[in-house]
Known about the structure:
Elements: H1 2-28, H2 39-51, H3 58-75, H4 91-109, H5 115-128, H6 140-150, E1 165-166, E2 169-170
Antiparallel strand pairs: 1-2
Helix pairs in contact: 1-2, 2-5, 3-4, 3-5
Amino acid sequence: MAMKVLGAGLRRAVAAIVMVVVLAPLAVAQGTSSGSEPTLVFEALRILQVNYVDQIDPAKVLNGGVEGLRSQLQTSGVNAAIGAIPPGTAEADARGMFADRYATAAAAAGTTLTPAQLAYAAIRGMTESFKDSHTGFLTPEQNAERRSRQRGQAGFTGVGVILMPKDDKFF
């Protein structure tokens, strides 16, 4: 039993690494698509369908994307009513519904958020919907930082000192 659980955990970790390595470079391509088209989000969904260890429910995952859009809009101070995709919706219908919700979010955001920020928020929401600590999304910048650390290059420089005031002195 322990080997079976270990094997499942290892498969999830490998799938997560594949998704991070594959999704991060795709994020660079966002600049070539229109701001109101969720092309990058749908490509991320396809990659998750192919590489995730278990079969996924596209409507549930795209609802994670809707939640990611809502969260990003709220954080940016943009008010928009974006409804959920009904559970059990067929994939083609769920994609159409998500595209409508993405267009609504893009229109509401105007120039407050870039198309890349919206797509990244949706993809982050999609990966968070798995509630799996081994599945996530890295922006191209975060992925470059990860690669630097893997090559042994310093990600941050400095001496790591924290100054705290006490009795009009810093310690």
